[in-house]
Amino acid sequence: MDQKIMPPWLVVISHGNFGKELVNSCEMILGKVDNIYCFSLEPGMAPEQLLENVTELLHDAPQNVVIFTDIYAGTPSNVATIFAKQKRYQVICGMNLPMLIEAEMQRYDVAFEDLIAKIIAAGNDSIINITSLTHGREYE
């Protein structure tokens, strides 16, 4: 399906409410975001339950899906890895607000491969040591 007609879905999976609040912040800046879905690993929740919840949503998902998770090798990213293997969805760990904003702003206009690169660049570029800048030093 043409990406202009059906842009990639954005799926956010995190420990606790981190992902939900990240999406709330994104929508505070950009307005309502369509086709973005959040899942939270709650205290005491079995990984199998999280997997079941995400599987139910992704059953009817388009071919291009970007899954954001908070911590590499944590339960949310381990669950997302299953979809990376099975359906070749893109999974990006270490999500932050600039990444979600970039994903929403670009997913209607760029090729999927370019979108992934832009999301990762936005995340990397947003990590800045302000103190070093105020003292005239930049660190890469």
Automatic annotation (TrEMBL):
One of its GO terms (molecular function) is kinase activity. It is found in: Cytoplasm. GO terms for cellular component: cytoplasm; membrane. It comes from the Bacteria. Its main location: cytoplasm. Gene3D superfamilies: Phosphotransferase system, mannose-type IIA component. Residues 7-127 form the PTS EIIA type-4 domain. Keywords: Cytoplasm, Kinase, Phosphotransferase system, Sugar transport, Transferase, Transport. GO terms for biological process: phosphoenolpyruvate-dependent sugar phosphotransferase system. Coiled coil: none annotated. The keyword Transcription does not apply. PANTHER family: PTS PERMEASE-RELATED-RELATED, PTS SYSTEM MANNOSE-SPECIFIC EIIAB COMPONENT-RELATED. This is PTS fructose transporter subunit IIA.
